[in-house]
């Protein structure tokens, strides 16, 4: 196994290992994440380096929640 595969596998396990709470981001953070995603794709470490105070796993979870129909913000749940 090469180190890239291990790193990606570790990140996926880390993302999936804990029950998720909805992650709130400011409008500025959302805009920055969207712009960075368009530039670099799903390279969460690079994006996290541009968003102060946020970790790569947190941004990845936010992205999945924001772009998935399975997650709704707490105020939208029935």
TrEMBL record:
GO terms (molecular function) for this protein are: DNA binding
Which GO biological process categories is it annotated with?
A: anatomical structure morphogenesis; cell differentiation; plant epidermis development; system development
The UniProt keyword set, sorted, is: Developmental protein, DNA-binding, Nucleus, Transcription, Transcription regulation
Source organism: Brassica campestris
Q: Where does the Myb-like domain lie?
A: 21-69
- A Pfam family: Myb_DNA-binding
Keyword Flavoprotein in the entry? The reply is no
Location comes to: Nucleus
Name the chain's protein.
Myb-like domain-containing protein
Q: How is this protein annotated for GO cellular component?
A: nucleus
Domain of life from the UniProt record = Eukaryota
